[in-house]
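The record is kept unedited without comment:

——
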Amino acid sequence: MLIASAAAGLAWQNTYRTPLKLELKIPRQRPYLTLTPESAARAKARVAQSGWAKEILDRTLKDADGFAAKAWGTLPPKGDDEHSAIGRRIFSVALAYALTGERKYAEWARDGLAAYAAVYPSMPLSNYRIKVFLPRHGPLFEAMWMVLLAQAYDMVADSGVFSPEQKTRV
């Protein structure tokens, strides 16, 4: 029975030998991960037409204003759960920029992204191949945090607030 199972497994592997050919198509205009320019325009139109959409935008901007009012200090040490909250704040402020175009939001998000870009490469890997969080969180936890930062960068990358060196580093 064991030999028959092994043979069946090999037959399956032989059936699907050809690797898939993937074409990576990255849009020329940002943002394109969380929002697109078209979806941001639709959101702005909803705000102009709908009270509930205006309430959500007002709440988003109030949160972003609170976050952006605080200057960046030193990032917490490796393993501190605060990194997760910081990632969400950077995302929220970048979203405020994407919806308003206000430079102050892009600048604050840039400073947060640049702070992480300055320390992340030199952080040691844990045995679970993660850098920012502790092994008890696992790699998926760090991956979700990294997705927030990637989405935030996408929303502010073309804002004009990054130097070429900062863009490369981030």
In short: The first helix runs from residue 2 to 15. The chain has one domain: 29-169. The chain has a mean pLDDT of 88. DSSP finds seven helices and no strands in the chain.
